[in-house]
Amino acid sequence: MPTVTLSDAKTNLARLLAEVDRLGERVVITRSGRPATAGKSTIAFATASADPEPRRSRNLYT
Question: How far apart are CA 33 and CA 19, in angstroms?
């Protein structure tokens, strides 16, 4: 699973998304050397098994 720094992801977002979609694998975006988020292709997302009890996301803007 490839890793990319946040600054590289921001600079090359379109290229990064195209690469993730082409390879069909997950990519981890790091901030200060620690994983901050992960992304995967739409095909991998669609074929992933559904979570029986989805977690509620918290509102970050309140």
Answer: 21
